[in-house]
Automatic annotation (TrEMBL):
Domain PEP-utilising enzyme C-terminal: 247-534
Protein's name in the database: Phosphoenolpyruvate-protein phosphotransferase
Limits of the PEP-utilising enzyme mobile domain: 154-227
EC annotation from Swiss-Prot or TrEMBL: 2.7.3.9
Pfam families per UniProt: PEP-utilisers_N (PF05524), PEP-utilizers (PF00391), PEP-utilizers_C (PF02896)
Residues the record lists as binding phosphoenolpyruvate: 289, 325, 448-449, 459
Active site: 191 (tele-phosphohistidine intermediate), 496 (proton donor)
């Protein structure tokens, strides 16, 4: 059959053409499994498998932080926690001691109820079942001494077709080789989908199980925008799909219909991500997450190592603005070589500037020295401070930068004091935006944390996922208040949260007055196209109506 169409949910605004490689990640237990077992031996086998799995996860976390991004790598922190979950470990102990089964059979049983619990939930909570399966299958593979399929070596032009892809599976994929993937399970917020967007791999999830009964080598067109998968397309269908897919990559700055310039920048975590962002047409970097340099290692990077990494990103965007966020570690993002108590609520604890310089001034000083040295390079480097909540905090930070600059000057070291800014992530920073703007060159709104704090809804708690939506009127009003205050303070204001990268929100954000939008590289062409289509008067009208709305449903109806 030619040109058969399969429908699912597109999770990346990209199109790929390639040939099918079927993949099954499940680990089945052998029918001839040992029956007579010694409980102590099986307990020891399980503990050894846990240790091996933890070592594997630590290595994969490090590789993912390097290849994909620091935030995406945090997925593996949850996997490490599952290894120590009492429900799992106690379940294995009971099955081994009381039922006399092997460690692998005990692991399979121990994960059954937790997986079923997640699957019975709604939305993002349900998708966490894949994380549990990932950990279960890893333990089973280790216990059964089976080799893992190496997905990093798939041939060029592969379209991976599977029932599901776990985070560990997706993190292996090489975006230069994989033309796309299609899965039966998963949604837009699944970890596989998040990684696909970060890796810029076309992906469609949630397709009918019978529809993907395809032979290896079958040619497919995967449209991650529409969610359509075309089977055995002819040459005309391939050409038409490519012509209609996504927005054109534009390397020049864009303006609205009325000529207002809006900078469209990228969020990056590594020099490699910066290169990918430049290829997608980013005007610059709106958020360089420096914490990737500090994670997954036994000691902090020295000043020169930080300087070299910063220079590598600056060289990619020579002549453009590169906004560097100072070290945002602590609380929910611990590092092994720092003895820091995350507290009962890490998101409300010691993180951002409360950690560096708050608790580790020596790390901060070396960090800022590297940034000021890099600011003398080819890019228009800017620096912003995370989680600033008071004017006193900000004044102390500015004094610290001045002191470090003076030290570099006295030592005859080449440096420059860049544009200085701060993140707007808390209600406190919203209310102080005018005072901050009078002291700084810019502010950047982090909508992920701002939504969390305005709505009192933790980002990682799926039970309150519906509250973690920036379209809630209180969040929109916080954004609008910030923009107005910053402009009154004669500074510019950007946004680097996920909201900035959703093309559906571009008109609204332009209408709210944002000067810069920064996002994952994959959505840059679509947002640039959206800016070019914006009529300033219509955008302002939309923003006013959204700010007067009472519910997020009302706001979404206005956008739709």
């Amino acid at each position: 059959m030619s040109d058969r169409r399969i429908s699912g949910v597109g999770v990346t605004p990209l199109l790929g053409v390639g040939t099918v490689v079927q993949y099954d990640s499940a680990v089945d237990l052998d029918d001839d499994e040992r029956s007579a077992v010694d409980p102590e031996t099986e307990r020891q086998r399980f503990e050894a498998a846990r240790e091996t799995a933890a070592d594997e996860l630590a290595r994969e976390r490090s590789r993912t932080a390097e290849r994909v991004g620091a935030e995406e790598a945090e997925i593996f922190d949850a996997h490490l926690q599952f290894l120590d979950d009492p429900q799992i470990t106690d379940g294995v102990e009971t099955a081994v001691s009381e039922d006399g089964v092997t460690a692998e059979r005990a692991v399979s049983r121990a994960f059954e109820d937790p997986i079923a619990t997640f699957e019975g939930a709604d939305g993002m909570f349900a998708e966490r079942a894949d994380d549990l399966r990932d950990v279960r299958d890893r333990l089973l593979r280790i216990l059964l001494d089976r080799d893992r399929v190496d997905l990093s070596t798939l041939p060029e032009g592969t379209v991976l077709v599977a029932e599901r892809l776990t985070p560990s599976d997706t993190a292996q994929l090489d975006p230069d080789a994989v033309a796309g993937f299609v899965t039966v399970e998963g949604g837009r917020t699944s970890h596989a989908a998040i990684m696909a967007r970060s890796l810029a791999i076309p992906a469609v999830v949630g397709v009918d199980p019978d529809a993907v009964d395809l032979d290896d080598g079958t040619r497919l067109v995967v449209d991650g925008t529409t969610g359509d998968v075309t089977v055995d397309p002819d040459a005309d269908a391939v050409a038409a799909a490519r012509e209609s897919s996504g927005a054109t990559v534009r390397h020049d700055p864009v303006t609205t219909v009325d000529g207002r310039h809006v900078e469209v920048a990228a969020n990056v975590g590594t020099p490699r991500e910066a290169v990918a962002a430049a290829e997608r047409g980013a005007d610059g970097v709106g958020l360089f997450r420096t914490e990737f340099l500090f994670l997954d290692r036994e000691a902090p990077p020295d000043e020169d190592e930080q300087y070299e990494a910063l220079c590598e990103v600056c060289e990619t965007f020579a002549g453009s603005r590169v906004v560097v966020r100072t070290l945002d570690i602590g609380g929910d993002k611990p590092i092994p070589y720092v003895d820091s108590d995350p507290g009962d609520n890490p998101f409300l604890g010691v993180r951002g500037v409360r950690f560096a310089p708050g608790e580790r001034p020596e790390l901060f000083e070396e960090h800022v020295r590297a940034i000021l040295r890099a600011a003398a390079g080819p890019a228009q480097l800017a620096v912003m401070f995370p989680l600033v909540s008071t004017v006193a905090e900000l004044d102390a930070l500015l004094d610290e930068v001045s002191a470090i600059a003076a030290e570099l000057d006295d030592a005859g070291i080449d440096y420059a004091v860049p544009e200085l800014g701060a993140m707007v992530e808390t209600p406190a920073s919203v209310f102080l935006a005018r005072e901050f703007a009078e002291r700084l060159d810019f502010l950047s709104i982090g909508t992920n944390d701002l939504t969390q704090y305005v709505m009192a809804a933790a980002r990682d708690d799926d039970r309150v996922a519906s509250l973690h939506d920036p379209l809630h009127p209180p969040v929109l009003r916080a954004i609008a208040r910030t923009v107005e205050a910053v402009h009154e303070g004669d500074a510019w204001v950007g946004m680097c949260g996920e909201m900035a990268g959703d093309p559906d929100f571009t008109e609204l954000l332009v209408g709210l007055g944002l000067d810069e939008l920064s996002m994952s590289a994959v959505t840059i062409p679509d947002v640039k196209a959206g800016v070019r289509d914006v009529d300033d008067e219509s955008a302002a009208t939309l923003a006013e109506a959204a700010l007067n709305a009472e519910t997020r449903e009302d706001v979404r109806a206005l956008i739709d």
